[in-house]
């Protein structure tokens, strides 16, 4: 990997525009989770010290990462939520609003610019996130991981997929889960309802290019599980599972 500079956005706020316009590879439908739509844009604005940006030797933004501090150990919580990514976003901004003291940092996104994959940037951003949390006095980073190869087998139960390992070294078969484990993370459990995207059939056709004219489960490129289509009622729903990983610091 060529020389890369990784800092928080708080340290280089002038990069916010370039970070937001960084070319990405996310599927369009992923952008329409309502919790994410509401809270994700707030991270860079309200928590720049937990937002990370990587630049190459030319100064171009090549990766970004978002994290949020939240209170896991308070009453009515205590366990990593089944609601995964969306729930931890809700918790974090609720805690920020009401002045609760956070005890944990959660990863929200690590994204590498289109064309920059395979250079170790994801690992570098995860390391920066862990180092930042440790420097701020936290002892735990958690991540609702979106397994990077799960979309290739959308009908495999996530409970089976998440704990699948390679014979030669015992590491996860999924590449992104493997990065987390190599970095010291421990796979804890599945978050079965980590993201929910609902829309009309026309919206899903626009997002995916698929016809969405038959009832039942529809396999969509990039989706970790099939999308449930209900033509007689005019809608389809995608409920994405993620995998909780703990990083003790």
What do you see in this structure?
This protein starts with a strand and ends with a strand. The longest helix has 15 residues. It is 27% helix and 28% strand. By secondary structure, it is of the alpha+beta class. A hairpin with an 8-residue loop joins β7 and β8. The mean pLDDT is 97.
Structure summary:
With 249 residues, the chain is an alpha+beta fold.
Keywords:
249 residues, alpha+beta, Aminopeptidase, nine-stranded mixed sheet
Summarize the SSE layout with pairings.
Elements: E1 5-8, H1 16-20, H2 34-39, H3 42-46, E2 51-55, E3 61-70, H4 84-98, E4 104-112, H5 121-135, E5 140-145, H6 158-161, H7 175-182, E6 186-200, H8 201-208, E7 216-218, E8 227-230, E9 235-248
Parallel strand pairs: 4-5
Antiparallel strand pairs: 1-2, 2-3, 3-4, 5-9, 6-9, 7-8, 8-9
Query: What percentage of residues falls in helices of 4 or more residues?
Result: 25-40%
Order of helices and strands: EHHHEEHEHEHHEHEEE
CATH topology: Aminopeptidase
- Give the helix tally: 8
Cα-atom Rg, whole angstroms? 18 Å
Q: Please, what is the average pLDDT?
A: 97
- How many domains make up the 3D coordinates? 1
Within CATH, the superfamily carries the name: Gcn5-related N-acetyltransferase (GNAT)
Shape: globular
| Largest sheet data | 9 strands, mixed
Strand content: 25-35%
Strand elements, count: 9
CATH class: Alpha Beta
- List low-confidence stretches: none
CATH architecture: 3-Layer(aba) Sandwich
Structural class: alpha+beta
């Amino acid at each position: 990997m060529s020389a890369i500079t990784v800092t928080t956005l708080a340290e280089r706020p002038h990069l916010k525009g370039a970070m937001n316009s960084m070319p990405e590879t996310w599927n369009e439908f992923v952008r329409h989770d309502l919790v994410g739509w509401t809270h994700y844009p707030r991270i860079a604005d309200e928590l720049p010290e937990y937002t990370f940006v990587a630049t190459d030797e030319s100064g171009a933004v090549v990766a970004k990462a978002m994290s949020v501090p939240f209170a896991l150990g308070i009453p009515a919580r205590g366990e990593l939520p089944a609601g995964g990514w969306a729930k931890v976003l809700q918790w974090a901004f609720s805690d920020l609003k009401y002045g609760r003291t956070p005890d944990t940092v959660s990863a929200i996104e690590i994204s590498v610019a289109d064309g920059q994959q395979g250079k170790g940037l994801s690992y570098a951003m995860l390391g920066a996130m862990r180092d930042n949390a440790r420097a701020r006095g936290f002892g735990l980073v958690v991540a609702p991981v979106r397994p990077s190869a799960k979309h290739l087998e959308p009908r495999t139960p996530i409970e089976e997929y998440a704990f699948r390992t390679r014979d030669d070294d015992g590491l996860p078969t999924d590449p992104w889960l493997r990065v987390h484990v190599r970095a010291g993370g421990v796979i804890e459990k599945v978050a079965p309802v980590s993201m929910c995207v609902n829309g009309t059939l026309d919206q899903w056709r626009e997002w995916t290019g698929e016809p969405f004219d038959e009832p039942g489960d529809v396999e969509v490129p990039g989706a970790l599980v099939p999308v449930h289509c209900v033509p007689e009622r005019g809608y389809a729903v995608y409920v994405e599972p993620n995998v909780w990983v703990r990083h003790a610091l």
